[in-house]
Amino acid sequence: MNTSKILMAALLALGLAGTGHSQDIKAKLGTSLPDTHPQTIGARKFAELADKKSNGRIKITVYSAAQLGSDQQMQAALRGGTQEFTVPSTATLANLVKEFGVIGLPFSFANEKQADAVLDGPFGQSLLARLPEKELVGLGFWENGFRNFTNSKRPITRVDDLAGLKVRTMQNNLYIDLFNGLGANAVPMPVNELFTALETRAVDAQENPFTVVHAQKFYDVQKYLSTTGHAYDALVLIAGKKFWDGLKPEDRASLQDAAREATLFQRQTSRELNTRMRGELIKLGMLVNDVPDAERQRMREKLAPVIAKHQTAVGEDTAKAFFDAIAKAPK
Ligand code: EAX
After folding, report:
1. Can you list the domains of the chain with their CATH numbers?
2. DSSP string spanning 276-288?
3. What does the pLDDT look like over 217-244, one tens digit per residue?
4. Whether the predicted model's global pTM rises above the 0.90 cut
5. Which residues are near ligand 1 (CB < 6 Å)?
């Protein structure tokens, strides 16, 4: 054997050379929603792109529908290093980095295009930059979409119709205050427990984009869907920082590249499905009513104290930067 062959044999023995299996990076990506939801469709696209861009070195396995736990449990697993990726709502991520809560401030965004501009611009990037201090790395904002109200009792045509309804909310103080502020009774729980809670009538109502209502089959246990569009919800593709820091620079580059492409695909898929699922839900028997803008405006007015409280909670500077970014964004 010549010197280079000896060196190669030594490197292989140490698992430091070649493209053998010992070199492959295996990672788990957990989502909270089923395979048919754009959160998981986007996750599978990211896994496929990561594989392609790394020439097959990075193998990400997607576990959907909270198989690895709730949003909050998965965030903890990323920080602890037992899971590598997840895609939580900004609302649950806000329990770790409070500034993410600003995205859910009710009636802030006019449309998706405006959300893209804010999230992809300096403001969104400043939020992602806060993740490393919590042992997480942000790879991009995905979309959950505008949230609508569903319930088993009556159509919501006026703000007063919400009175007394027991509504499941995400585990997030802003959403809890929002629905209590509108006269309903908020009951926070993870999304994977929600179908049973609706079915057993432990709660009367929930709020989510059309895609979630469809993917979670809430049409089987909720009659009325009212297009309150009370908040825009973004998802955040995150990695555990320990895992991320242990990767070679070229692997991080492949993943960033995959994340960029998957983000565009995920948003487009989310928008297409959110448009289509409205009609599907009607076909499946839901009674869908459009809440007039004047009534949405009344909801917003009623929520003024809640909005003020949560601007303070996320930090006045963050809230100001957020509203400035919205004002500058094209609609
Ligand atoms: O994270 O918990 C929820 O209602 C969210 O919309 C969803 O699971 C996305």
Report:
1. 23-328 (3.40.190.170)
2. HHHHHHHHTT-EE
3. 999 999 999 999 999 999 999 999 999 9
4. yes
5. 32-33, 71, 88-89, 144, 170, 191, 208, 212, 233
